[in-house]
Amino acid sequence: MLKGKNILIGITGGIAAYKVCNLIRLYKKSGANVRVVVTPNALNFVTKLTLQSLSQNEVYVESFEIEEYKPEHIALTESDIFVIAPASANTISKIANGICDNLLTTTACAFSRPILLAPAMNTNMWNNPFIQENLFKLRNNGYHILEPSSGFLACGDTGVGRMMEPEDIFDKTIKILSEKMPFFGKKILITAGGTKEKLDPVRYITNCSSGKMGIALAENASKMGADVTLVSTFPQEGCYTNIVAETASEMEKVVKEKLFEQDCVIMAAAVADWRAENYSEEKMKKGEEDSLTIKLVKNPDILKEICEIRNSAPTRISGSQNSSRNSTLPLGEGCPVIVGFCAESENLIENAKTKILKKGCDYIVANDISRKDIGFNSDKNEVYIIDKDLNINKLEKNSKQNIAKSILEEILNFSKIKLIN
After folding, report:
1. Are 238 and 218 in contact (CB under 8 A)?
2. Whole-model pTM?
3. Which of 180, 201, 233 is the last residue of a domain?
């Protein structure tokens, strides 16, 4: 559920610090990358080695233990959420008043994404009017406060002050992220790159696609909370699962196998229309002949085939909807939304309209490949998004990252329309 998400945990000086070890395990088990920043006093309750072993990352304590080129308090802010547990009265008051006297409080001051506090302290400290005033200030400024529960406290008293259990903090984390990330809990499969159709061990037929559009879609979908699978014709590292499928047949197999696990499938890859009928196991030698004839046969039409499978299947619950308690966006209403791409050198809109009607997908994204300033191998693009009712939305020339974001927002709007209808 948290695959690819970056979670920063802050630990302050309090006996409840030992419970955070289990919280780290929950995050890691759910697929998150976890980093830990502690106050010096926290190390009186839990060791640095234990936290490093559980998080599988360096544990940060002092502001000037710098090995990266970035100041640590800035580098740590690149996480999706900052969870401070336990949050002591001292640290709560410092954050509320902008005091930055250690790495944890300095990081909190610079953090622009959600911050979740799980306070833990003596009952009298919790009821102190200054502490309550500081908590009020933090709530009003967007902080999430998971109030402590009542029970027997380490000091021997009984009352409010026990830090909420790791499972409660874990569930609250998911709730916060699902609200901030519109694709949180959803699965999206994206294809990218030009397929390579082999002739012999050293030669192949391919096209000019760089895969940049598909990568931009994968990166933006991941930032918007999706569990992304990128099926590309080349290896690619990112906050998503990457499966390499060089040929059309390999890509067809992967996409079909994973089709009904997805909430959305975006076919951004440039799949070759043809492949050699006969693959030569040995390198083809240049003989005395002045020409070489290679018979080509049609490749599978992956987009059309998965649309036919999807459109003829009974409504079912997709994998991500079945597995996520907090998945509320009904992408495809049980069957995946399918988006195709159309690369044309002439009659762009007419050909795109013909293609969407022929394929049966929900959207076609049309590219004009005759232009040298956009499309293949460029960092910019200009596209038309055409839906199955032949409505047209033009996305003016922009970076592929921004175009990708707009395409994903269009998919979100499509889903909301389906929900209303």
Report:
1. yes
2. 0.69
3. 180
